[in-house]
């Protein structure tokens, strides 16, 4: 146990017992506990394997390369259609966790084997994502914007493309594009 992560297990009263049990299970598998993104993250030889996090309706184990796991019990969930690699196992009470302990450990050990084998999730390239018409017109209109966008990392490009294409109304898409043009021109990502 990493003392730096202790606060996480004490702050959330709603899921405290559940995440304590998840912590015990994960640490039982020989992973190293660190704190990343404000959550307890469990690593194997400096590689992220699984993360514990809480939401209003559930707590979860998030497997970083979950898309590569077999999911023989059908419990791995893709959070949204845009999540490519990670998969969650969600819990709403302590009993679910204790009943599934062997299955959870099997998934953790499988994730470790995936990491040992050096397997990687093939991520879609930014060019494979749809470009909102409102953003495309700005790219066509402002040459420096096009150059700046192409220089961004693939992850930053994907984040902007998804952010711009999510709203149903053109007016909202256009407002998002306008708001973020300065950030793109400064080579910053959506959350920078």
Commentary on this structure:
The chain is α+β, with helices and mostly antiparallel strands. Helices cover 45% and strands 15% of the residues. It has helices spanning 6-11, 16-28, 94-99, 101-116, 133-141, 143-151, 154-165, 170-185, and strands at residues 32-36, 39-44, 47-54, 59-63, 87-91. Strand 3 and strand 4 form a beta hairpin. Helix 5 crosses helix 6. The longest helix is centred in the middle third of the chain and has 16 residues, at 101-116.
Question: What is the compact description of this entry?
Answer:
The chain has 192 residues and is an alpha+beta fold. The chain contains eight helices and five strands, in the order H-H-E-E-E-E-E-H-H-H-H-H-H.
- Tally of individual helices: 8
When the domains are counted, the total is: 2
Mean pLDDT: 92
The strand line-up of the biggest sheet is: 1-2-3-4-5
The CATH class of the largest domain: Alpha Beta
Looking at this protein, list some descriptive labels:
single chain; 192 residues; alpha+beta; Aspartate Aminotransferase, domain 1; 5 strands; 45% helix; 15% strand
